[in-house]
Specification:
elongated
Length: about 70
């Protein structure tokens, strides 16, 4: 966890009390924790790729023939 002084370095010249800096830091940590928890839950429900596509399946000559 970042210290109050480390947080102040990132906040630059924003005038906040130590208590405000700590509340802001704690709120940001809670937000990040929730976002990561949601991401991990969603990632657990995604089916893994069964087959990785290789460039051999999409040769450059096919792109040239299509005009791209």
């Amino acid at each position: 966890m970042l210290s109050t002084d480390e947080c102040r370095e990132h906040l630059a010249d924003i005038p906040l009390t130590d208590a405000q800096v700590e509340r802001l830091r704690d709120a940001l940590y809670a937000l990040v924790e929730n976002v990561l928890d949601d991401y991990i839950k969603k990632a657990d429900t995604v089916e893994p790729c069964k087959k990785q596509l290789s460039t051999a399946e999409y040769p450059l000559s096919d792109k040239r023939q299509k005009g791209t």
